[in-house]
């Protein structure tokens, strides 16, 4: 949350240079407050696990959030029960006449298919188009980041010779970017992908900037300069055991898989892995929720979101 300080206090300039978010009394006085309406478009087969992981991160801020769970109606889920979907989930048709403050779109285990072969691709492209006018900021995770970069900007994904699998050191590429406020210069993120997007393809898009990357695992976060679309290739939401679960699954199926890098103590899969990315995961989600959603979204959600974004000042 911002520090509310008297208008014109000299410390304001120093704090702003240090990337500390301050707000004049006059601005704070005029802020209206209401719960944020955030949708989770859950494309993962392991829906309940993903709900818990993301709710844990979204819940760790002082902001009130009304969470709407969405699943693609054009896909019949094998791994999540109909009862669970009927009880807790809506579809795009249920909300397409409304507006959202924020939307998170999850990864999906379809990265080795062509986008157009994914059976809910048509529905997803409708949602992505709709998000441009009706959502203040959308956070795309892993495969959804590849899908969003491809659909909005024509950035392609490429198959990797070896799965990027492990916990990798990442760097902040744009100093003072709001999304990475408070981050250490080097921080760790789990990655688990058979495909990749290329830095040079993103750099060719003037609307995009690369906010974070890793020497070993490539681009981590790209975003549109207006903050409306954020593309995160890694899985900061993963639990300590998520990579272990994927590794054990592949070993038990006899699939070729390396031990996840920088994960098990002494690289020994019989030992319990540590979570070394939780603090930055919490910071990423609270920065997004605060600076890209709460500070930018109009109080009247029916108002024109793009007008509000254009006039918003931090
Ligand atoms: C790159 C990223 O985004 S990483 C995020 C993805 N990671 C994960 O999903 C990790 C957890 N998932 C898993 O371990 C596995 O998918 C499992 C164990 C749940 C199921 O694996 P399998 O039994 O081998 O595959 P299964 O045939 O059930 O299909 C798995 C999923 O692939 C997706 N899928 C497969 N084919 C298609 C298709 N043509 N169109 C759309 N989705 C498809 C679906 O999501 C499907 O699960 P769902 O029907 O419950 O939604
Ligand atoms: N994280 C994924 C990659 C596959 O898309 C898994 O190993 O299940």
Account of the 3D structure:
With 314 residues, the protein is an alpha/beta fold. Helix content is 32%, strand content 25%. The protein has eleven helices and twelve strands. A ten-stranded mixed β-sheet has the order 5-4-3-6-7-12-11-10-8-9, sandwiched between helices. A two-stranded parallel sheet has the order 1-2. Helix 6 links the parallel strand 6 and strand 7. The C terminus is likely disordered. The protein binds acetyl coenzyme *A (ACO) and L-homoserine. The site of L-homoserine has 6 residues, from strand 9. Transfers an acetyl group from acetyl-CoA to L-homoserine, forming acetyl-L-homoserine.
Give structural attributes:
314 residues, alpha/beta, ten-stranded mixed sheet, two-stranded parallel sheet, 11 helices, 12 strands, 32% helix, binds acetyl coenzyme *A, binds L-homoserine
Side by side, the strands of the main sheet go 5-4-3-6-7-12-11-10-8-9
Outline: globular
Strand content: 25-35%
Q: How many beta-strand elements?
A: 12
Series of H and E elements:
EHEHEHEHEHEHEHEEHEEEHHH
The helix-and-strand class reads alpha/beta
């Amino acid at each position: 949350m911002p520090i509310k300080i008297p208008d014109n206090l000299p410390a304001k300039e120093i704090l702003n240079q240090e990337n500390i978010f301050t707000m004049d009394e006059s601005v704070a006085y005029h802020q209206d407050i209401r719960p944020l309406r955030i949708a989770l478009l859950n494309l993962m087969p392991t829906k309940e696990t993903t709900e818990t992981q993301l709710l844990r991160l979204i819940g760790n801020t002082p902001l009130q959030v009304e969470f709407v769970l969405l699943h693609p109606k054009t896909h019949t889920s094998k791994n999540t029960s109909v009862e669970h979907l009927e009880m807790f989930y809506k579809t795009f048709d249920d909300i397409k006449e409304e507006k959202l403050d924020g939307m998170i779109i999850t990864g999906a285990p379809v990265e080795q298919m062509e986008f157009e072969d994914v059976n809910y691709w048509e529905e997803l492209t409708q949602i992505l188009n709709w998000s441009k006018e009706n959502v203040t900021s959308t956070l795309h995770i892993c495969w959804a980041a590849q899908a969003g970069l491809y659909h909005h900007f024509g950035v392609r994904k490429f198959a990797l010779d070896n799965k990027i699998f492990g916990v990798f050191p990442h760097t902040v590429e744009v100093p003072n970017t709001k999304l990475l406020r408070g981050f250490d210069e080097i921080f760790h993120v789990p990655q688990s992908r058979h495909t990749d997007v290329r830095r040079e393809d993103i750099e060719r898009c003037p609307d995009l900037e690369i906010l974070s990357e890793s020497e070993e695992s490539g681009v981590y976060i790209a975003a549109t300069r207006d903050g409306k679309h954020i593309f995160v290739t890694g899985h900061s939401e993963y639990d300590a055991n998520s990579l272990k679960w994927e590794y054990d699954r592949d070993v038990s199926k006899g699939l070729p898989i390396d031990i996840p890098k920088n994960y098990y103590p002494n690289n020994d899969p019989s030992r319990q892995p540590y979570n070394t990315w939780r603090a930055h995961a919490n910071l990423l989600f609270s920065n997004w929720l605060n600076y890209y959603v709460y500070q930018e979204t109009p109080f009247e959600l029916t108002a024109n979101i793009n007008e509000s974004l254009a006039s918003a000042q931090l």
